[in-house]
Amino acid sequence: MKYLLLFLAASLSLAGSAQQWTKQYDMVDECTCGLALVTKNDKHGFVDKEGKLVVPLIYDDALHYQEGMAAVKKDGKWGYIDSTGKEVVPHIYSDANSFTEGLAVVLKGDNFGFIDMTGKVVIPFLYENASSFSEGFAAVNKNGLWGYVDKNGKDVLPFKYNFAGSFSNGQAKVMKDGKWFLIDTTGKKVEEQ
Questions:
Q1: How far apart are CA 184 and CA 193, in angstroms?
Q2: Angle at 76 between CA 72 and CA 80, to 5 degrees
Q3: Residue pLDDT, tens place only, 169-190
Q4: Nearest Cα to 142, choosing from 150, 152, 130?
Q5: How would you classify the pairing of strands 129-130 and 121-127?
Q6: E strands in the chain
Q7: Which member of 83, 91, 158, 171 has the lowest number of beta carbons within 10 Å of its beta carbon?
C-alpha cells in the first residue's frame, strides 16, 4: 500500500509538471526517442520529457523522431535533424518520410528515392511513388505499377501490381487486376487458411 501511494504521488507530480509546460504550446504530440513534437503559432519544435525546448519552434512542419532523426520542413523544403536539433541532411526535398531500417524515402522533383542518415542517395530517384522499408523491402511504383526493391535498390519482386503494401510478418497485401491478396517475400501468393 505504501508503495502504491508513493507511485501515485510521483505520477501525479509528473502529470502536474507536464500539464504546466504543455499549456505553453498549441499542440504536444507523443514522445519518441525522448523528444515530443510541439507546435505553437504554426511552428514546430521538440521538447524533452521535462518540457525543456531542445529544438526551437522554427519549422513549418515536422515528423516524429525515428531512428534518432526527424524530418523537418523549412522554407518549403524537407531535411533532417538529429536529436540535438543539428541539421544532418539539408532542406532540399519536396517531401520526406521518417527513417526506417536506416533509410528514408524522399521526393526530389517528381521522383522518389532513398537516402541514408548522412543524406547520401542510396537508391536513385526513379520512382513515381514509394513506401518506407519494412522487413528489408520497399514498395515502389514505376510506370504506373508497383513492385519491391531491396536496400541496394535491386528489383526483388516484379512491377506488376496495381497496389503494393508494406511487408509485415513476411506478408504484404497487394492488388492485381482488381483483386486483393497476400504475397510472401518471394512474391508467391499466400493461400487463405
A1: 14
A2: 25
A3: 999 999 999 999 999 999 999 9
A4: 130
A5: unpaired
A6: 27-32, 35-40, 43-47, 53-59, 61-62, 69-74, 77-82, 87-93, 95-96, 104-108, 111-115, 121-127, 129-130, 138-142, 145-149, 155-161, 163-164, 171-176, 179-184
A7: 158
Residue appearing with cell numbers 511513388: 129
Q: Can you give the pTM of this predicted structure?
A: 0.85
Where are the domain boundaries for CATH 2.40.10 in the chain?
Answer: 117-193
Q: Is the pLDDT of residue 75 over 90?
A: yes
Q: Would you say the C-alpha torsion 184, 186, 187, 188 has a positive or negative sign?
A: negative
- Number of C-beta neighbours around residue 152 at 10 A: 8
Residue 101, pLDDT above cutoff 50? yes
Is 117-193 a domain of CATH 1.20.58? no
> Is 11's pLDDT higher than 80?
no
Beta strands 77-82; 104-108: pairing state: unpaired
Yes or no: domain 1-99 corresponds to CATH 1.25.40: no
112-159 tens-digit pLDDT = 999 999 999 999 999 999 999 999 999 999 999 999 999 999 999 999
Give residue-wise pLDDT tens across range 12-66.
333 444 455 557 899 998 888 889 999 999 999 999 999 999 999 999 999 999 9
